[in-house]
Structures are given as structure tokens and as C-alpha cells.
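Sharing a chain and its predicted structure for anyone who wants a worked example. Both blocks are below, sequence first, C-alpha cells second.
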Amino acid sequence: MKIHKENVLLLYLHKNWKPLVLFILFAFCFTIVFSLSHLPIAPILYSIVLCLYIGFLFFIVDFFKFRKRYKALNHLQKTITVQIGPFPAPKNVIERQYQELLQIVAKHKNEWTVQADNMKKDLVDYFTKWTHQIKTPIAAMRLLLQSEPSRQNAELEMELLKIEQYVEFVLQYLRLENMSNDLVFKKNNLDEIIKQAIRKNAKMFIRKKIHLNYSDVTCTVLTDEKWLLFVIEQILSNALKYTKEEGSISIYMKEKLLIIEDTGIGIRAEDLPRVFEKGFTGYNGRSFFQSTGIGLYLCQQILTKLSHAISIESEVGKGTKVMVDLEIRAIGVE
């Protein structure tokens, strides 16, 4: 606190050094004139002391006013992001003009913020409608491909599955910001959620001849079924993407941890601390051109809002182990 007062005093002296120097210069000039006029020394000293006393009182009062304004402006720094003002009363026309300029800037900033929010809302609404509408032609294409079974159609159906996953990915990404309004917490059978994710990726397992190690999980978890299903699907999709043909993927529980382990290419040690960063693709993403850098970021964000947690262990050439902690930690109100 003492340092704060000393700083304010230094700021005040820096602001008013010109009047102080001018006051001292005037006192010195009067002293020289009086002494050259051969006046008695007593009146001269009396005048100097009186001027110093009056000047001291003036600067004391002015300093306390300055400190009060300084504290008011410091307080404004904490609330300026919410609202502009109220400012201390301006001391002169220059201060008033500065305050008017800030009011104008704040007004324009609010207008631009509203405009940007409206544009973002329109964009989200457009892509949300697009993702829903694109599902119809995807479903029609799947029916057409299934109506004429062939090796080529099977390959096309796999690519169509990827498109469907990417569409679902976009939809969930758009919903992420306001997902709290869409959460429905209840006790869910984890085994059913996992099996839904496996069924959705069954054709990819068959195509790549990847062995699945999974036995029924007798576990119920307090969560939102739809969002947890999306996370498990995303983790499984990554495991399938980076596991070579005839590899294996294991899904099992260890206490409250859901573990999805693959025998894929693995993740470099230097990339592991950043795998949950938005847009980070790492060595694998740059080498295989399949990573968007959004999937694991999205998983972590969703699991955080579900009050779960996610962590990854990996070794290059041996595989990756993704661990989802399904224990409820703390559900906050947003």
C-alpha cells in the first residue's frame, strides 16, 4: 500500500513539475529583487514562508483530488470491458473531449460486436441447416449403393460413411458453444453406448481387417448419452484411421476409466502435450494428411462440460491408449 501511495505521489509530481518549477522560479526572482532593493531581510523571509505555506496547502489539496481521480480510473479499468464510465468529472475541455472520444469508440465497438454476433449466428444457422439437409442425399446414396452390391459400391459406401462422419463432426462443432442448453444428464448403460459406436464403425473394422477386443461392460455412468457417444465415435474413428490393416483395437474398463487402446502408428512424445490443442496436427497429421487438429480438441471440450476427463498415452510404432475418466467431478452452472 505504501508503494502504491509513493507511486501516486511520483505520478503527481511528474504531472505538475512545470507549475512547481515556475513557483520556485518566481520565489527566487522576488528574493533577488527584494535583496537588490536593500529591503530588510525579515519581510523577505516572511513573504517567502507565507508563499510556501499557501503553495503547500494548494498542492496538498490538489494532490488528494488527483489521488481520488487516480483511484476512480483504476476502478474503471476493472469494469471497462462491461461498460464505459462513469468517468470522473473532467477538469478542463481537453479531458472532456477525451471522454467524449472514448464514448464514441465504445458506442462503435458495441455496434460492431452486435453486428459480428448477428453474422456469426446467421453463419451457424446456415451450416446447421446445411448439415441437416445434406443427410437426406447421403441416406439416398447409401440406399442406391446397397441396392446393387459390388466391390466398388462397397468402397463407395465406406467413403460415404466418412462424409457422414464429417457432417456429424461439423454439426457437433457448431453446437459446442451452446451445448450446455442441450445436455440431459441421466444414468446410462455404458455398454449400449459403446456398442452403438462399434456398430457405426463396423464396416471400417471389416474393411481394414482390424480385430476388436471387447467384452460386455457392466457399468452405468451419469452423463449425456448423445455427447458421450460422439466422443467415443471420434476416438474409435481416430484409432481406425491410424491402425494398419490386421491390427487390433481393445476397449475395456479399468475402475472408472474407459480405455480405448490400438496397435497403430502411435504419437511422438513431443506431440503428446499438445494433442488437445485446437488446430494442432502434429507429425502424424503432417505425414498422413488426414488430421484436422479439431477432433481431440472437441473431445476434451465436450468431456469437460460433461464433467469427465481425457488423457492419452502413446508410443511410436506400438500404439495409443486413450483413457476417458467417467467419474463425475463437478458440474458447474453456466
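Comments welcome. Confidence is low (pLDDT under 50) at residues 1-5.
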